[in-house]
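Quick start: what a row looks like.
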Amino acid sequence: MRHDGRTASQLRDFRVTRRFTGAAPGSVLVQAGRTTILCTASIDRELPKWKAVPDPTQATGWLTAEYSMLPGSTAPRKRREREKTDSRSTEIQRLIGRSLRSAIDFAALGARTITIDCDVLEADGGTRTASITGGFIAMCDALASIRDELPTDRPVILRSIAAISVGIVSGEPVLDLDYVEDSQAEVDLNVVMSGTGEFIEVQGTAEGQPFSRALLDRQLDLAAAGIAELTARQREILGQEWPLDTNRPNC
């Protein structure tokens, strides 16, 4: 048993409140244990300059992400990022963007930009992975809000995306590390996968001694099982707005 009573393969309690705010078309409050993140998804008709093409009807869309930890999310207080995003936040928001872009057919999206904002209200480990899992839900809600403007014969969302952390703590692989475990881990991995079990990204570091291929495989197996659970939760949370059923129009 782990310090919080979970088994090695057990996720923290994962909770999502949809439509948490009213301004953004996609807005969810994501909680994984004590880690709490507000994920919003916005859509506008402006594209980055580098995406511009002479014929607007041939334009393809884009998705970008921003991530920040609010000052009260950690102890001691984290300084507010007013003028320049710190290197950690930059790396995480790039990961969120890469991960969620893998879900989208940008030609079907057309000349639109999706922006995913992830603001950490409380950090207790796994903020980047919870941002990806919650960001996908917010994105689905945002795209559902413009369903009537999207092609009916070409789905915008191609696959679901979720992410989870795994690591080696006291010599054993464990799933969904909180801060206590993350700070003591001998190996730290973040795994992003599709709902059908394909890898999107794997980030892994040995914090001290190198680790074996066998330990890597055990961690990836834990991650795959955890992501299957999270995908089931995403589907349950979205209900009729789940975009990948074959018996209803996709977003």
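That is the whole record. The helical segments are 87-101, 106-109, 127-144, 179-184, 213-238. The chain has five helices and nine strands.
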